[in-house]
Design brief:
With 603 residues, the protein is an alpha/beta fold. It is 37% helix and 21% strand. The relative contact order is 0.09. It binds fructose -6-phosphate. The site of fructose -6-phosphate has 13 residues, from α9. Its EC number is 2.6.1.16. Residues 71-90 are annotated as: Disordered.
């Protein structure tokens, strides 16, 4: 959701910015823009739609040694060229890009900018006008005005500012929205995500909320909110450019689906010690073991992963688990148990809905763990503990490998805690062996692409809607399967508890409505089959995705058997591929679905 890149001290800043913005495309955006300058000239160019529209506008003379660029995902004001960033002050001197939402923009307009006129409808324009107003009214230098403005502004922001009269400095600040400084030889970059600038450097420095940074070609200076200088070590990004390239794949989503067996194996390597035991921070295991209830807080696909891991954790640890949607939990907190432990599941580590809960949990003093794919992300830094997903960058907006990695990491964690508590079920379990079987089973399903593509065409080519049904964990996977299908193919899909259909929703079944049943559980499988019969007799076209041990000759997709508590890791694979093929067959962009952002940094 919105992306910032910038560079100071290198020729052809415009090219570096365009390629950085392309690498941030995965975050979701609806317009883009850049500003580049050198001592002789400056250019500000914006375009609605894809980055290609922006790069098509760059003529030969658009060059610079300093620049900032932005992809915008509309919050205040519709997607348009006027509302695209960068925005300028009324006198045109200051140029600003911004991620986040300014909450007190109306108050700022009334108090400081009553006589200003605005070009677009964004809160960002208010911010850049405010900096200019402070320079004029209080005779402040650019840096001081910028620092004063960020004290006045409330809300979330990552800002990058250039003053055209001194085009050798980028001023940046951050609060709740991600931003990094990258260190190069005689140049510096800024970016929302290290991925964007990996071809320039892999040494980055984090910026903490409330800090401002003055960035030039040779140096950068971090100051805290009180103006004290801050020194912070750089870190090396553990990312490889090949991780973020599509290679021979037509879409990132397909690459990421295919990577899932390798991710399982990487998790085994990471979390298994030489004796075959789970290696986890002892204090994390002790705190979890001492809790009387685990609250998993997450959004979207991560929430679905939390649900899919619940039974495994409860079986291994005997600690009750509740999964909650962050956006609900934060404002309607349930009565908590006496010794709660909070797990924040978030592939990006930046999701604002989840973060607002973590802030409250920290204020209440409860222990917390963030399970994330992004080391150093906001939720990782702010939770007491972090476990990484080691899934490699997930670029497609539709999450696939992060979902399965989340379930696997929670299973490893539960095994570690269960062993510590000497729970019999954990002692009988060898999670690493089971995950290696899962990896092989995933490969089997991934190799069924041709069959899955054909089934998708047969079942989903002409439909407006579809249902996935299942019970227990199969219900939770149905919810994820339906989310994947609707978010990229735009087929109205619902994941339903199979037994609930007859209590109302069955009224929606018409001649030809696709109903896809997931069956991986001995106890409930026959009931789900009964529910499939019920809808079939009302005209539905049914498809069965079933574990080998319960399969019948007429079933369409058969899953290799894995541990009964880990079936979600395998049954989800054909549903990811169904979503992929349905989207391709409808001619939509698989990786960049409309209206969606990868990293959702507003509530
Ligand atoms: C869907 C998807 C989203 C995210 C949700 C939370 O494919 O990816 O539903 O799961 O926006 O994001 P994270 O996991 O980054 O907190």
């Amino acid at each position: 959701m919105c992306g910032i890149v910038g560079i100071v001290g290198k020729e052809h800043a415009e090219k570096i910015i365009i390629s950085g913005l392309e690498r941030l495309e995965y975050r979701g955006y609806d317009s883009a823009g850049l500003f580049v300058a050198d001592t002789q000239q400056s250019h500000l160019i914006k375009a609605q739609g894809r980055i290609k529209n922006l790069s098509d506008k760059l003529t030969q003379d658009v060059q610079g040694t300093i620049g900032i660029g932005h992809t915008r995902w509309a919050t205040h004001g519709k997607p348009s060229e006027n509302n695209a960033h960068p925005h300028t002050s009324e006198n045109g001197r200051l140029v600003l890009v911004h991620n986040g939402v300014i909450e007190n923009f109306e108050e700022i307009r009334q108090q400081y900018l009553a006589n200003d006129s605005f070009y677009g409808e964004t809160d960002t324009e208010i911010a850049v006008h405010l900096i200019a107003a402070l320079m004029e009214q209080e005779q402040l230098a650019t840096k001081e005005a910028f620092q004063k403005a960020v004290q006045i502004i409330q809300g979330s922001y990552a800002f990058a500012l250039v003053d055209k009269e001194a085009p050798e400095t980028i001023y940046v600040a951050k609060n709740k929205s991600p931003l990094l400084i990258g260190i190069g030889e005689n140049f510096h970059v800024i970016c929302s995500d290290a991925l964007a600038m990996l071809d320039q450097t892999n040494h980055f420095v984090e910026i903490v909320d409330g800090e401002t940074v003055t960035v030039t070609a040779d140096a950068f200076q971090i100051e805290d909110a009180k103006g004290n200088l801050v020194y912070r070590e750089s870190y090396e990004a553990q990312l490889d450019l090949t991780d973020i390239e599509k290679g021979t794949y037509p879409y990132y989503m397909l690459k990421e689906v295919d990577e899932q067996p390798a991710v399982m194996r990487r998790l085994i390597q990471t979390y298994e010690d030489e004796q075959g035991n789970v290696q986890l921070d002892a204090s994390l295991v002790e705190e979890l073991a001492a809790s009387d209830r685990i609250y998993i807080v997450a959004c979207g696909t991560s929430y679905n992963a939390g649900l899919a891991a619940k039974k495994f954790i409860e079986t291994m640890t005997h600690i009750p688990v509740e999964a909650h949607l962050s956006s609900e939990f934060g404002y309607n907190m349930p009565l908590l148990s006496k010794k709660p432990f909070f797990i924040f599941l978030t592939q990006s580590g930046e999701t604002a809905d989840s973060r607002q809960v973590l802030v409250q949990i920290n204020q209440l003093g409860y222990p917390s763990l963030t399970i994330t794919n992004v080391a150093g992300s906001t939720l990782s830094r702010e939770a007491k503990h972090t476990l990484l997903l080691h899934a490699g960058p997930e670029i497609a907006v539709a999450s696939t490998k992060a979902y399965t990695a989340q379930i696997a990491v929670m299973a490893i964690l539960a095994q570690g805690v269960g062993n510590y508590l000497a729970i019999e079920a954990a002692q009988e379990m060898d999670i690493f062996h089971e995950l290696s079987l899962v990896a092989t089973a995933m490969e089997t399903m991934i190799s069924e692409k041709a069959v899955i593509s054909q089934l998708t065409e047969d079942y989903l080519s002409n439909t407006r809607n579809a249902f996935y049904i299942g019970r227990g964990n199969d219900y939770y996977v149905s919810s994820e399967a339906a989310l994947k299908l609707k978010e990229i193919s735009y087929i109205q899909a619902e994941g339903f508890a199979a037994g609930e259909l007859k209590h109302g929703t069955i009224a929606l079944i018409e001649e030809g409505t696709p109903v896809l049943g997931i069956i991986t559980d001995a106890l409930t499988g026959s009931h789900t089959r009964g529910n499939l019969k019920e809808v079939e007799s009302r005209g539905a076209k049914t498809l069965v995705i079933v574990s080998e041990e319960f399969a019948r000759p007429t079933d369409q997709l058969v899953l290799p058997n894995v541990h009964p508590l880990l079936t979600a890791l395998v049954s989800v694979i054909p549903t990811q591929l169904i979503a992929y093929f349905a989207t391709l067959q409808r001619g939509y962009d698989v990786d960049k679905p409309r209206n969606l952002a990868k990293s959702v940094t507003v509530e």
